[in-house]
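Researcher: Go.
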Amino acid sequence: MLGNSNSYVRSAGAKALSWMGATASEMIPELIPLLDDDAADVRQYVAEALGQIGQESISSLVVVLKSGSSDRARIAALSALAGMGAEAAKTREVIAPLVSLTTPTDLRCAAIDALAQFRLPAGELFPLLENVISVDEEKTWEACFAALLLTSDRAVSLVPWMATQLQQAPDPQKIRVLALTQKLGPKVGSLAPEIVQTRSTTSNPVVAQGAQETLEFIGQAAFMPILLELAPLSIADIPSDCWQLQSLRSMGHLVIPDLLQAMQSQFNSVIWVALDVMAARGINDPIAVQRMKELTLNESADLRAKSLNSLVKLQIPGSQLTPIVQRLMNDPQLAVQAEAIQSIPFLGDSAGRLEPQILAGLDSDKQEIRLASFQAAAYLPSTPDNLVPRLVENISESTEEELAIRLKTLHQLGAKAAAALPILLTLPEPQQPDLAGQWIACISTLAPDHESVRDIATGYLKSPKPYLRLAAFKSLESVTLPLEKKLEFLKSGLLDNELTIRELATDQVAQLGTDAQPLAPTLFERLEVATDQSFAIEALRRIKTTDIETLIQCLTHKDANVRLFASDYLGTLGKAAESALPSLRKASEQDDYEPVRRSASISVRRIVRSN
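Model: Structure:
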């Protein structure tokens, strides 16, 4: 079989010999020449057979490597030696010269792959690779990379070399070393300082990203070197989006003991970072929570505010949080007071205990406290009798910022603040887009049945200003209108030239369910506009359209998503869609999009079974 002119027969013969293993050793002389066979699969199976024969074929394979054989024969011989694994490790001195920059790439990589399979310690393998491991040639690096990961010590002994590369090598090599470090993980945690330095000093975004990801793979060992980067800074100088914080947040769940220790640090910045990481990762550790409570008494205003903010994010019970908030509402530092007041929405019914302080804050001469108190007032369990009058008192003289917060609070109070409507209706139209939207939303929520409110809301539906139309369409969810009138307005929204308005109107149509079926033709029209397709399809499903004829037409739509929707939806209609069977059968056989064909087939079965 090995001498047959048919390559398939030759490969079959070699494959059979591989099954025989060492018992086929007498066939070595016939196999060796076939390492240079023209057919790649023959060379592959011959190499496999020689590898399975084992020791007795090594000397013949070494001859091939040393002789002037072709590159493909030597590559096949290397494959055979690789198949023997550690059993062929004694050939490494013969293979080593092939790991050279003067050797063709494929042969060089085959030599590296063979050495890798010997599973040598990194200290023995690395000297054999040292001349090529830094070459700017991706295939060679990939081979070296794989070889180092297969070493008996997983290349951990190469940490000094890797550290030097991170400090001195050009960026492409740094990227490679970082990739190797990621694979080795926590075992090479001692590299963390070099990786932190690389991340801090590089201007190459690829190196920066690689270093940051590597630190997260290393985990706990990277925590302290990263933290030391922030320790000398003041809290005010720590950017909330800095890479150090991002990395620490990512590994937070791995370093809880270190975080607890950091909370005892002499550096306020380190404590602040620990609080940030605990809160960001939701680490509700009992010891950490107790320490946060203690830190609300710290001499640093930044830490008092941050510890309260962290307790809020960890969602500790309102009964535990309320005494802390109550105390900090009287803090000497304005920023801490504001943080305390902003925490009130998270207190639940316990917020009622703070009502006197909240109401007193409405009269504060400090705008930050006054605005925070306005917002907090909406979260009181019961609405104080004098709250609404105080919210509208001198409201026309408010700054835009204060007016926005007063309107937001009134909006949250809803019908409880209906008494404020007459004053709100006297306000001039706000010129700032967000403020105008807040005003329309507020009055619509306070009195959805009021004639003036309906007139204002529906009047703005025709405004030339997109932000006013958007606010008006949002108010339609609240304002009481006859269904016919609401559908008329929503149809204009479906056809608006602003995408955000069309999307909002489509969502409101969907919420109406079957009541909105008269708008189905308009929704079908929107399928012709790519930006509107997805939400128009969802609305058609939600209103449960029964327009069989239009759905049948959609089966031949130019857009596959529309065809898929139609083919799927028709199946949900059962017997009512019987007239669609011929078109569905055609789609199941001829549509050029496989999901449509499959969906149409399923729908055919569903409709037939419904009969």
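Model: The CA atoms of residues 36 and 73 lie 4 Å apart.
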